[in-house]
Write a structure and sequence with these properties.
By secondary structure, the chain is α+β, with helices and mostly antiparallel strands. It has a single domain, classed as Class II aldolase/adducin N-terminal domain (L-fuculose-1-phosphate Aldolase, 3-Layer(aba) Sandwich), CATH 3.40.225.10. The protein is built from five helices and eight strands; from the N terminus they run αβββαβαββαββα. The longest helix is centred in the last third of the chain and has 25 residues. Bound molecules: zinc ion. The site of zinc ion has 7 residues, from loops.
Length: 204
């Protein structure tokens, strides 16, 4: 596993996420695709800021089976859904930041709309601040297969790009590789902070 540059990039991203304070108290989970059939996902209960390469477990994308028998993140089913659904997805980052958690509760509709921000261009395929980028918000659920089914049903009828929020919980985002997933995470977190501050100021 030590020869996989994408895994090395993911471990570095986890350390950066830890420094940002976006995965407190062992929350969150991260993964990278190995091939068409398998991904590597962080082991349950580990501090994301101090993960090592051997803290990632091989998981079968088709059925969430873990050949090693170790326990992967409780939210593995959301990662494998994204890999199954979108052949282009190469890495998935799931964080529990304050801004994502608060905004997903403050916004009462089923999507957080970002518009008017130059930093929307940090998202692949976005070329202007004039477009509307809608990040869907799903109700939180301790039943991960049920939550995954709702995300899948959404993706059946609408484009699902960049990421989604889980209300009162956090952000899932992804990219073609770790570098792009990391850029999307950083861009979205910046946009969330802007949006939260804008709403606070405009409410006064
Ligand atoms: Zn979570």
């Amino acid at each position: 596993m030590s020869e996989n540059p994408e895994l090395a990039a993911l471990v570095a991203a986890c350390h950066w996420i830890g420094q940002k304070g976006w995965c407190p108290a062992t929350g969150g989970n991260m993964s990278v695709r190995l091939d068409e059939d398998r991904c590597l996902i962080s082991e349950s209960g580990k501090d994301k800021g101090s993960l090592h390469q051997d803290d990632f477990l091989r998981v079968n994308i088709a059925d969430n089976h873990v050949p090693s028998g170790r326990t992967p993140s409780a939210e593995t089913g959301l990662h494998t859904l994204l890999y199954r659904r979108f052949a282009s997805v190469g890495a998935v980052l799931h964080t529990h930041s304050v801004n994502a958690t608060v905004l997903s509760r403050v916004e009462k509709s089923d999507a957080l709309v970002l518009e008017g921000y130059e930093m929307q261009k940090s998202l692949q395929g976005q070329h202007t601040h004039l477009d509307r980028v809608a990040i869907p918000i799903f109700a939180n659920d301790q039943d991960i297969p049920a939550l995954a089914a709702r995300v899948a049903a959404y993706a059946d009828t609408q484009a699902l790009r960049y990421g989604f929020l889980v209300r009162g919980h956090g952000l899932y985002c992804w990219g073609d590789d770790v570098a792009q997933a990391r850029r999307h995470l950083e861009g979205l977190e910046f946009l969330f902070q802007c949006e939260l501050q804008r709403r606070l100021l405009e409410a006064k």
